[in-house]
Amino acid sequence: MTKLKDSTVPRDQIPSAILNTLDTGIDVFYFMDSQTLSMDFGNALGLGLIGMISRPKSHSERSSIVAWIPQEDVNSRDVAHLWLGDQLRDATTKAMETLKIEGEVEFHNREKKVLFSEAYYETKITGIKKDGTKCGAYIRTYSDIISELKPLPDFLAQDTEGYQVYAGDDTNYPRFQVYCFSDSLEQYVEFTTEISKSLPETVFLYTRLIKYDDNHVPPMVYDHGKALFFLVEKD
């Protein structure tokens, strides 16, 4: 947690889309109070995910994907990164349909070779709302960030094996970037939240601190329709 900075935002600057999906707003002292340590599963998971992916200093400044892939969902480790790209594409296009965003998949799991580095696989999805707002998503996965077969965490599935997607490398880490070009951050939060609803139970989104004019969206973990983050409201 020491790698992330607290975000302090006046309540009237918090987009309503956040308030509608917010699971809890807390600061560090919440976890130090013995009367409040008995948090529910969703909050504990959000804290654990943020702690895990914020180890490198740069993680507070980038968005990423936190995922485990059950063995039964893929034929082998070699195609696990492509499975992840498929799930993110499908969740994004479903969210676009729900939010009435007309668009298309421009390319999907396209291999991009890089000199002196590992090749990556990218997907680009673009669309536009009836009011003219342009929205879309960019996905990038790597084959070398997939672990060997190992037990999945008990909080996801007991007695089940699968593959972990590592998000800890400074360069080769899974990317998921969402945007909606509008005058506020509400549509961005709404779009990302809607995407997370359709992801497999073992896949989560992490988004960095977003700033737009005087508005801020703090670092968040999107847990299948819930936005989990740590917020200290100004007096």
Name some characteristics of this structure.
single chain, 235 residues, alpha+beta, eight-stranded mixed beta sheet, four-stranded antiparallel beta sheet, 5 helices, disordered N terminus, disordered C terminus
State the gist of this model.
With 235 residues, the chain is of the alpha+beta class.
Record the SSE blueprint.
Layout: E1 7-8, H1 16-21, E2 22-26, H2 29-32, H3 41-53, E3 64-70, H4 80-98, E4 102-112, E5 120-128, E6 134-142, E7 150-151, E8 161-165, E9 175-181, H5 186-197, E10 203-207, E11 210-212, E12 215-217, E13 220-223, E14 226-232
Parallel strand pairs: 1-14, 2-14
Antiparallel strand pairs: 3-8, 3-10, 4-5, 5-6, 6-9, 7-8, 10-13, 11-12, 13-14
Could you characterize what this model shows?
The chain is an alpha+beta fold and 235 residues long. The chain has one domain (7-232). The chain is built from five helices and 14 strands. The strands form three sheets. Strands 1, 2, 3, 7, 8, 10, 13 and 14 form an eight-stranded mixed β-sheet that branches. The protein has a four-stranded antiparallel β-sheet with strand order 4-5-6-9, with helices on one face. It has a two-stranded antiparallel sheet with strand order 11-12. A hairpin with a 2-residue loop joins β11 and β12. α4 (80-98) crosses α5 (186-197). The two termini are 23 Å apart. The relative contact order is 0.24. Residues 1-9, 13-42, 51-57 and 230-235 have low confidence and may be disordered.
Annotation field: number of helices: 5
Strand content: 25-35%
Distance between the termini: 23 Å
Average pLDDT, rounded to a whole number, is 77
Largest pleated sheet = 8 strands, mixed
User: Which percent bin holds the helix content?
Assistant: 10-25%
Number of domains: 1
Per DSSP E runs of 2 or more residues, the count of β-strands stands at 14
By oligomeric state, this entry counts as single chain
Radius of gyration: 18 Å
Which structural class do you get from the secondary structure elements? alpha+beta
User: What is the element string, with H for helices and E for strands?
Assistant: EHEHHEHEEEEEEHEEEEE
Unreliable parts: 1-9, 13-42, 51-57, 230-235
Q: What general form does the structure show?
A: globular
